[in-house]
């Protein structure tokens, strides 16, 4: 079999559909649609040098890679290459070729340190280790059955707290951007992030085709967004928490739990049957909150890192 690696064709729906199929097959907890794949490529920040690579065997896309520069990190020279190959397409060199292509691309963009998420399975970890990657921090994917599972009872907000949908903030949610930026800055990660570009956040995050503003819940205190859970949904009745966080001044009051519970109840009422979320393996407080909701770990990824020589 001949394996070919190339860039995904911008705006090409068959390419995007095949890309999404590979992503869903390899990581079911990560929502992906043809529209979201095309949107990610079309609206990526120019400084990210974002690229989507595909590996083809006999004209069929069997592997994908998301590649780019960590432009929002205060430390220069960092990049990422997340590679996934269909189980039936492994063993013919597709993973090696697409990773090598990604590394060459990043090196040409000035990247010296490459981070890659690797599914925590012996075969995948051995693949990464053999190519010079060392394991770093882990992260869990969690699943909640919304169709048959029991959610905690909905709670009335405390005095002075109002629950609002993301849609109520309209097309100028600057206060939500500021809250998101604060929570992302405090999120455990190997690669620090700083959100400073509001206009790009509006395009890349707030207007993303997977973001569901109606199911997004924001806890507001004295007119100020204090905690939120960003809802994402696909076209198959699946829901995912894109981000859940609380502003520093409001932590310890259960507001994130309040917002997420409200969003999950409304998602179930809207017909969503599965809910997914992700947690850094060391983020015990958030893991405890998700366990309280009934989430169970369904997969684990381990971030790996390699220095390009």
State the main characteristics.
twelve-stranded mixed β-sheet, single chain, 2 domains, alpha+beta, Aminopeptidase, 12 strands, 309 residues
Task: Give an account of the 3D structure.
- This protein is an alpha+beta fold and 309 residues long.
- It has helices at 13-26, 34-43, 94-108, 122-130, 174-185, 198-206, 255-269, 284-293; strands spanning 3-7, 51-57, 60-69, 78-85, 113-119, 134-145, 161-165, 217-221, 224-233, 238-246, 274-280, 296-307.
- Strands 1-2-3-4-5-12-6-11-10-9-8-7 form a twelve-stranded mixed sheet, with helices on both faces.
- β3 and β4 form a beta hairpin.
- α1 (13-26) crosses α2 (34-43).
- The longest helix has 15 residues, at 94-108.
Short description:
This protein is an alpha+beta fold. The chain has helices at residues 13-26, 34-43, 94-108, 122-130, 174-185, 198-206, 255-269, 284-293, and strands spanning 3-7, 51-57, 60-69, 78-85, 113-119, 134-145, 161-165, 217-221, 224-233, 238-246, 274-280, 296-307. It contains eight helices and twelve strands.
